[in-house]
Specification:
4-stranded antiparallel β-sheet, alpha+beta
Length: about 70
């Protein structure tokens, strides 16, 4: 887990994430999750983000990343 300006960022291996959640898509670009070895996705706020969007920092600015889940 990383934390940037109060946001918790959880980095998750794509294979493990696909085992837990089938049909998951990137919040920013809509890319479908595929169990690719060595690929890392991120869970930030209420959103899940693919490696391409992480590289473009979309996981830090997307509206779903800025929402905090209700507990």
């Amino acid at each position: 887990m990383n934390e940037i300006s109060g946001m918790e960022i959880f980095r998750i291996d794509a294979v493990k994430l696909a085992e837990l959640f089938s049909g998951l898509k990137c919040e920013a670009c809509g890319r479908a999750l595929e169990p690719v070895a060595g690929e890392t996705w991120a869970k930030v706020g209420c959103g899940t983000f693919c490696p391409d969007c992480i590289a473009l920092d979309r996981h830090l600015t997307h509206p779903s990343a800025c929402r905090v889940p209700v507990q």
